[in-house]
Batch of 3 targets.
Target 1
Amino acid sequence: MGHFADTFLNWAVMAQYAPKIVEGTWVTIRLALAVVIAGIACGLFLSVLRAFRFRAVNFFIVFAVDVLRALPPLVIIIAFYFALPAVGVRMSAWVSTWLALSLVLMAFSEEIFWAGILAVPRGQWEAARSTGLSFLQTLRDVVLPQAVRLTIPPLTNRTIAITKNTALGAVVAVGEILYQAQSAYSFSYNPSPLLLGAAAYLILFIPVVYFGRWIETRFAWKR
Amino acid sequence: MEALIRSFFNFDILAQAWPILLAGFWMTLLLTLAVVPLGFAGGLAVSLLSTARSRVLKSFVIGYVDFFRAFPPLVLLMLVAYGLPFLDIRLGAFGSVALAFFLNTSSYYGEILRAGIESVPRGQLEAARSTGLSALQAMAWVVLPQAVRNVVPDLISNTLEVIKLTSIASVVALPELLHAAREAQALTYNATPIIAAGIIYLVCLWPLVRLLSRFEHRQIALH
């Protein structure tokens, strides 16, 4: 037991690297927030654009969304960070991770918003237009408020899953929690920092998982 | 344009890298065939346990699911791959990936199947029991088939995510598709293998994405 504690809960090692993990936690939070804001905003924008039903534009949106949903996020991050410099596009590890995850969240949220827009009965459109509202007013004041409400549970779950992917940034050395934990582990050759990192993730994400559960029951779809 | 083709779509490089990529593809396939059935079986066990009457068992299962859903999968993988050897448990790369994926995916499949079981009206179970089926028979032949059918879209969606997730095994040096692509990139000093790996993922997973987006539209429209 003493050996176990020395190995996995080594206070000296933990105390030494705790500030690094805390630093990483802030990076994770900032990265996650930046991804959520950019991803959902772009997804909403694309779904609204799709509602105009321009053939060529919609074909392009569907194609882009499909590609982003079929590719593993880690492959996208690595392509941005290791492949794009070959054609002269250079971005930092942070930007590669942020951009890749934002694009993935954009794709998923566009699909979800679009499904929500489609779910609003046609009669709502027709009634709103016949009262004299323009297309844009109808979309903004009648359709979107109803559509967005429907999309909250699936969107929350998807967003949570994608924010957890910020850990993938460790692969290209973004200084978030996992990267800090991993490099502390390599320096000390002791797994305690990994456990500390895991604890940081639990503290961050358990409330988020519970929030997701609450949202799911609060806005449950009636089947 | 020429630079783009030379760095990303270089057929000479692709011909060199092809054997490595192919080996990586088979490893990804093997990994998928190992982790998807294992995770599904685990999820089935989790969902059945969550229907148990025992309070203790129930809260244990909920704790298990929330705990492993709060961890980013890559964090779990690193804990298993780098932490367990300190306990003299050596699973190797494939074993570590299998264990980490089992813990993660069984929680997700478990949540989905639990929702499925809850969507089957209690009367079904009662009717089945009153015809003389045992509790186990009623579950296996009456409740589960309906439960699974009700959550097919979520099951497919999760399976797609699991297949994409196998790319994180590259981080612990399991020679799957992404790892093979990075190795080939290092050998040829050209980004073509990474783009090629992306295209392989795309070709294999696109049908699943198309199928899913059909399901999703129908599901949200039926709410």
Target 2
Amino acid sequence: MSDIWTMMWKESKDLLFQGGWRSLIRPLFVIGIMGIYLPLQLGPQWVDLTPLGMLLLLWIPFFVIISFIGDAIAGERERHTLETLLASRMPDRAILLGKIVATVVYAWGMGILSLLLGLILVDLLRTQGNWMFYPLDLFVDALVLSLLVGVLGASAGVLISLRVSTARQAQQILSVSTIVFVFGVTFVLRAVPANVFSSLNYSQFLLIVMAVIAVLDGILLGLSLVSFQRSRLILS
Amino acid sequence: MAGPIIRTEHLSRFFSTVKAVDDLSLEVPAGIVFGFLGPNGAGKTTTIHLLLGLLEPTQGQASVLGFDTRTQADEIRTRIGALLEFAGLYERMSAEDNLDLYGRISHMPAAERRARIKELLTHLDLWDRRKDPVGKWSRGMKQKLAVARALLHHPPLIFLDEPTAGFDPVAAATLRTDLASLVAREGVTVFLTTHNLTEAEKLCAQVGVIRQGKLLTVGNPDELRVRTGGPQAEIVGDGFNDQTLALLRERPEVANVALNNSHLTIELRGESKIGPLISLIVKSGGEVEEVRRGKASLEDVFLTLMEEENT
């Protein structure tokens, strides 16, 4: 566990918060849109966690993750830091999980912070009535789904990053894969007979979605761990 | 530890038809700087990768600090320090953070880490720049920092892969001086690969010469000079001609003669007297201005070994 923490510390120093104040531009931009602009536009509707709010909470951390994660292994290889890291005692799992967890926490944290900021803003601007909070079940669903989707993006990113030689290449493949994935999911959902959906209530449907994403997370994480072979990485 | 700190037995690594390391049997005793010499592509870096357990050998076996490289690579990597082909520093992080990271990786307690980082950076005159991002540093400073990183957790053995490669002579000399002083102070065994023979001559108690994956010879530099080069005389002057060379080659005490512009290099068999040879040169019409006696340099030894291997 301490090794994973060390890798997270390193990722935060090297990648996420490098470059002084400039490193704050990206999170401030995301939080500004999600946590200030949209809540101000939607007003009390924002707190209902409308489909738009849920979708934003799912997708924005996901896009933040895929904009970083391609650099995870390929970037280290390009900057010639990977060989030294591999020659250290740092276990394979800690290197991989540290990178994944650091990126997911960063992006997920941004999502949570935006939700809380939006809530406070909407409540402050309301002049009457009690303080509002998001519907608790929707809020928890959103957090869990957002986490699962984030892990999906990070695991896929690391897996691609392990297999290509440059961060840019990883980024390109990841972007194309995301588009293919989104279209694939849409196609599959359209192919399912309508009576299947009508026979499910909201909770059942959400549970199935979460289970499918969790299984995909597990598969991609497992593949990443299997693909992380020091001898192969040294030779590449 | 008793016995050699590194031992390889018939260690080989092939990449399809290329024999990167071929039947390497070697023992490196503890407490010395061991130089692993060879031209580019000789198999030096692959040997380090094999010793660190980063590559599986195709044949043979190796142990480092008593641990098998195939089955106990984690134990090896926990105990050694390494400066590989590239400095491997995180350029967006400060020097202090770079060292702190590897201290954390080695599970050093925070207070010990801080004290050790200060000690090493102060010794290398880098302490005042510790907060700078490493990307703003010169190459020499980065390399010194990478040496400090390798020594951070007090390893008994460090691997240095061509630490001065690509440096100008002044920067290389400075790094060598710092390296020698650190190594002496820390009492650490060093496995140093290089193709810089001056470096090997200055730093190494023992050297091994490798070419095309094969170990050609091992010994201390003096032994190798005697074994391969022997004593020699360098004569500076004018009027040396083919007749001079032919006369010298007929002498029983002369092993070899080479003429390079106005420099005549005579390799001698044993500790022969040089006087009769000078007389011979003068009689054949040569004008002698200066005579220097000496041993073959490690470079001569190296070149001789390479030539022998070619023939």
Target 3
Amino acid sequence: MDTNTATSFDITRIRQDFPILGTNMRGKPLVFLDSGASAQKPRQVIEAMTRSMETAYANVHRGAYHLSEVATEAHEAARGAVQRFLNAAEPEEIIFTGNATGAFNLVAHSFGRGMLKPGQCVLVSEMEHHANLVPWQMLRDAGLGIGLRFVRVTGSGELDLEDLSAKLADGKVGLVSVTHMSNVLGTVTPAAAIVRMAHEAGARVMLDGSQAAVHRMVDVQALDVDFYTFTGHKLYGPTGIGVLYGKRALLDAMPPFFGGGDMIETVTLEHSTFAAAPARFEAGTPAIIEAVGLHAAIDYVNTIGMPEIEAHERALVDHAMRALTQVEGLALLGAAQDRGGVFAFTLDGVHPHDLSTYLDRSGICVRAGRHCAEPLHMRFGLEGGSTRASFGLYTTREEIDFLASKLTDARRFFA
Amino acid sequence: MSAAAGFEELQDLYSKVLRDLARNPQHRGRLESPAASARGDNPMCGDRVEVFLNLEGDRITEVMFMGRGCEISQASAALLTELVRGKSPAEARALGEAMTRMARSGERDESTDELARLSVFSVVKKFPSRVKCATLAWHALDAALSGVKEISSE
């Protein structure tokens, strides 16, 4: 059967790039449907990182010797790759962090504490990952007079734009920080409209691209967004490296967060002056090998082509909608018009954790629980959480069909 | 491991004994004014078990639980309430420790009737991410006996 007639996408070849997809789980082929938590790695990424350690490794930005220069060049080449991936205006607008959580904490400290004024507030939505909630709660509770507001999510799992408009109306919002694609509902938010509305109300905007950047083309200049973040490990790259994009003028005005080596201009015992962005926000030895891995991951998705990946995933989403809604007793969370390959659901009579254990015994990896989005689950009255299947560029229709059939079996097993 | 083994393990885990405990708990509910109570939460999955108990002297005279969650966590809570009535706090904790030991080691200790009943959880060893489900109620009991109101087993 031709599984992907919708695109010229060669899924068989792509799957061969990912060594782990050829392995068995307890004697059964691995059906990895948890890419939204962390994606698998292609050989190209694995080999680039190994090669870096074997042939081009030294600390960066320090040594006046050839090997360090080579390593530094590779590190900055990775920055350039990210710049082009997001269509940022300059490489200096790309800051490497540990992950997306690191980016939120950086902005909460440097922009939040450094540039928001008492009386101003941060506006997040009800469907945020904890990474885009907890840092702002900590900022609110820091005694600086900075507030925190929440945009409602509609019953269909979309951002309530009327509520957004109402929450922006008094002009007190200094920063809107919302997801570009929900890690639970799959909802892709209308980023350009959000940015426009926020800017008209005098607020800056940060978008959480942890999911979106993996599934859609992102153009930070077209969006006119002020801050954007994504993480390497969800984009088929390594753990330990994330990205914060920030507009140059903003970054230059922001105080540093972490202090240490690499982020300074001059240091005396009493005082230091700080380097310009991005170095200002990259204290200490960075994730050198991981930056090389992220570069390889970006090259990998670019070689396949983001438009092709997007088309493949749209076809998968349509297929999954049909397959999953046919499973008796299954209720999907959210019904957004614009959604990506993330499906959270409940199965009548089967607890998510029991379901996950059941599916695991068929080689299927899904996530069970609240997916780091506890308030969203409360919003939908799901204290016990949900089960989530999330797709990667290597996911096939057969895997989705297999999941659907096993869901039906699970319901019988737990009846 | 053969393909069939995965399914056999599932049937071991979700045994009739365990499923009956989860679906027909004997002491589910609240005590009016308990001498001690505590709530256990697994924040990652949302499982919750609240244990209520009354004590007379050094004996647990009544014990009930309320909870929600997967079958493992609820079966464990149900069995707990059947086993610790009439026990001293030290004896009750010892049962919890024995259950945790079996869940982690996979070894069945059937030296007493009570331990034999708890040994249904030894199969959890094959499902490492579920050990915390099995131990949640016992953590809550321990907290109640220590006068702590809320605990998390993660």
